[in-house]
Backbone:
């Protein structure tokens, strides 16, 4: 049975969180929004010392607890040096591709709560000026932030409250086309969070209860490999909702849901992966079973940390992962359908 997901709520949920900055380790702005969204559905949140948000939904049979993870952290950067002329140098948070970040608007978040925009540029920023403007490698040594401020010295930057260690977020530039193609940075993994809240809304409005206890987890360290390493007591299954990949060796596409059989570290649980395939078939959802390289999830991190659980991973497929990503709402609706089927039927 295909579930009648509220498509507009899915879109609105994504729009609501995509412009709230949450680079790796920076949770102060998004967590209040997640709590507000949960409260609107009559749900409460809890947090651990890592500031992971948890939403618990009791099941009919409490003998098993399933964790569903959708990470909130995005790629970002951190200031490590203020040059004498006021330019900022940064280190990356997560696997940034500087080639597709050049020319983006970025935001520096100071430790006292101020926010400044800037242009992320290469030091050889113009073909009219620099002979190596096209050929210079884009990396942490050659990229810089030019603040949108009338400054020309390190001291003037410091007077703004900017210092080493300030977080830097990247503007997402979200667009939704008339035929439901979603283009935005950070569909990885805010698209998955929108799917989670769509599931919660469906459960509430239809007065449905999952078969087992469910803990929805929204951590902030997936992009650096350890968002899922801490698991609350009693969890025996971890379902990671994360993006699928599109490429010449892969079957996935934007209109389907990618089910990950193996990532760069290890295979996912045989039984749980088969169960996801069954859920896709039961909801008439297009899916692809794929093996990913240079890829990992919080579910895999949970296993590698030694937790006694089984893990699986699935989600909407995107073009241009870790860049200006694109998917289709078909993939997000399909992800939501598979998750509902998994939670509601044994």
Residues:
């Amino acid at each position: 049975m295909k579930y009648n997901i509220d498509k507009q709520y899915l879109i609105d949920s994504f729009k609501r969180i995509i412009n709230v900055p949450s680079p790796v380790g920076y949770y102060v702005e998004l967590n209040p929004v997640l709590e507000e969204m949960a409260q609107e559905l009559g749900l409460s949140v809890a947090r651990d010392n890592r500031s992971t948000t948890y939403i618990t939904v009791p099941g009919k049979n409490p003998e098993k607890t399933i964790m569903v993870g959708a990470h909130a952290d995005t790629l970002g950067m951190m200031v490590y040096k203020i040059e004498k002329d006021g330019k900022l140098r940064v280190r990356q948070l997560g696997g940034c591709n500087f080639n597709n970040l050049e020319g983006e608007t970025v935001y520096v978040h100071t430790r006292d709560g101020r926010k400044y925009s800037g242009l992320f540029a290469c030091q050889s920023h113009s073909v009219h000026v620099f002979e190596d403007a096209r050929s210079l490698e884009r990396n942490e040594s050659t990229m810089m932030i030019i603040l949108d401020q009338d400054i020309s010295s390190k001291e003037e930057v410091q007077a703004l409250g900017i210092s080493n260690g300030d977080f830097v977020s990247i503007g997402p530039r979200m667009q939704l086309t008339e035929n439901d193609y979603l283009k935005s940075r950070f569909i990885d993994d805010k698209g998955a969070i929108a799917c989670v809240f769509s599931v919660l809304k469906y459960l509430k409005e239809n007065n449905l209860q999952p078969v087992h206890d469910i803990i929805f987890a929204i951590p902030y360290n997936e992009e650096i490999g350890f968002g899922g390493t801490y698991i609350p007591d009693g969890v025996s299954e971890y379902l990671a909702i994360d993006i699928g990949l599109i490429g010449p060796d892969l079957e996935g596409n934007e209109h389907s849901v990618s089910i990950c059989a193996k990532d760069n570290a290890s295979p996912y649980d045989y039984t749980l992966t088969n169960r996801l395939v069954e859920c896709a078939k039961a909801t008439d959802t297009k899916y692809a079973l794929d093996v990913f390289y240079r890829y990992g999830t919080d579910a895999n991190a949970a296993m590698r940390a030694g937790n006694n659980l089984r893990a699986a991973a699935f989600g909407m497929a995107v073009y241009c992962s870790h860049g200006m990503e694109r998917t289709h709402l078909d993939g997000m609706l399909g992800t939501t359908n598979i998750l509902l089927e998994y939670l509601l039927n044994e």
Remarks:
- The longest helix spans residues 187-205.
